[in-house]
Amino acid sequence: xxxxxxxxxxxxxxxxxxxxxxxxxxxxxxxxxxxxxxxxxxxxxxxxxxxxxxxxxxxxxxxxxxxxxxxxxxxxxxxxxxxxxxxxxxxxxxxxxxxxxxxxxxxxxxxxxxxxxxxxxxxxxxxxxxxxxxxxxxxxxxxxxxxxxxxxxxxxxxxxxxxxxxxxxxxxxxxxxxxxxxxxxxxxxxxxxxxxxxxxxxxxxxxxxxxxxxxxxxxxxxxxxxxxxxxxxxxxxxxxxxxxxxxxxxxxxxxxxxxxxxxxxxxxxxxxxxxxxxxxxxxxxxxxxxxxxxxx
Length: 296
Ligand code: NAD
Description:
Blueprint: E1 3-5, H1 7-29, E2 34-39, H2 44-60, E3 63-68, H3 75-87, E4 93-97, H4 106-112, H5 124-131, H6 142-153, E5 162-166, H7 173-182, E6 186-190, H8 197-201, E7 206-209, E8 227-230, E9 234-237, E10 245-248, H9 253-256, E11 262-264, H10 271-295
Parallel strand pairs: 1-11, 2-3, 2-4, 5-6, 5-7, 7-8, 8-11
Antiparallel strand pairs: 9-10
Helix pairs in contact: 1-10, 2-10, 6-7, 6-10
């Protein structure tokens, strides 16, 4: 029997805890935790993600502000917005929505985010410490953290497991591979130049699929009983649906059903966890900054 992992229900439960913690923080400090968002890119999906994140903040009682730029903005405009959020005492977390317009130096912008407000976990120091033994980053990126929480929630044995991550992007594949390694899995990272992916997957107890190719990974490539977290969120045409399209994962769910032990669905798997982890990081940042201020 294949268990379908219900990311929506898990995220919902965590958000109830977040709401309670937000209220607790606000009652102790006189203001809620705050998230600052920078949107300086032309991708319509980014604007939608920012709207969803701000809506989730509102529902959780987290204050949010957005700096939204048009295509004629300069690198310095965006950098100044980051500096303003760094200095704003009502803001505890900063999110720079990627990708940025071409004229903006992404590396410099991410590096400008105050380390203790880097709730997206993309500051090179946070990614660096994530990869180092004996060091802990202040924050880990939202989507990879969501994958790890889903694995923990279903009681997957990570230590000693063979884990294969399909994809090596800075946003998903690479950080989730580092997190699995920190949790003592034996990690293989597959990518676009990997030869014979089915052979690589054959012995994987845990699979994190993040290649962005609809229904690519077939059930017969997967080990019987494997745990599969499908990060892929791929839009495909669907004339039968009202919108004319729908989203599918990287794993062909129908062929995987009956073979794997547990798998997330798309949508309703990793997606709802991502924003939840961002909210959680924002509260973590708020408590840490408030504690530092009390010490000073
Ligand atoms: P990306 O395009 O930056 O990276 C894709 C990775 O897949 C690359 O490292 C590439 O080498 C690898 N790849 C490409 N073809 C491959 C192949 N044939 N075999 C093995 N590896 C291959 O994408 P991304 O930003 O990492 O996103 C990956 C997927 O996850 C997308 O579908 C995206 O929409 C989804 N995503 C979902 C969430 C969420 O919250 N649910 C968040 C981020 C990304």
